[in-house]
What does this fold into?
Amino acid sequence: MYKKIFFSVIFLSLTIALYLYLGGYRLLPEINTLQAQQKQLREAISQASEKTQQEPKNAENWALLGKLFMQSVQPEKASAAFKQAVLTSLGNPDYITDYAIALIVANQSQVSDEALKSLKMALALDPKNKRALYFLAMSKSQQGDKAGAQKIWKNLEKTLDKNDPLYLAVKEHIEP
It folds into this structure.
């Protein structure tokens, strides 16, 4: 809850600062657009949440709710939704990876033991899971195994299309 308040205060402060600095009348359309997008996101979360209540065993509904929570910067709620997606799907590796990523985001980009365990589980089910490999490398880097991280990132780079957003993230970590 404090994160939500914090992000709201930051958003409001930045909005006011930009308004004053750039000339507010020019920013009004952008502010209105952002507010409309936030409203749409809140409505989508409400609808997805309702669907999970109507169909609690539908893994896709839980995964959608998790993705919407991630978009709204609520990783704790996202991880709970993704956990339900994992349980109801009986271990879909993509949902397991989504769960791990939500845990990592909720933990200020630090790979916790639970997130690492989830990444390894996803990779056991799908050894080519690119997102899981990326975050496994991140975990190795955080644990001081720079060589292990570099090996994973370099191998992953070879499998990614240059237009894939993950490609740029991997390139940022690769040391020459």
About this structure: The two ends are 42 Å apart (CA to CA). The longest helix spans residues 24-54. The mean pLDDT is 88. The chain has one domain: 2-173.
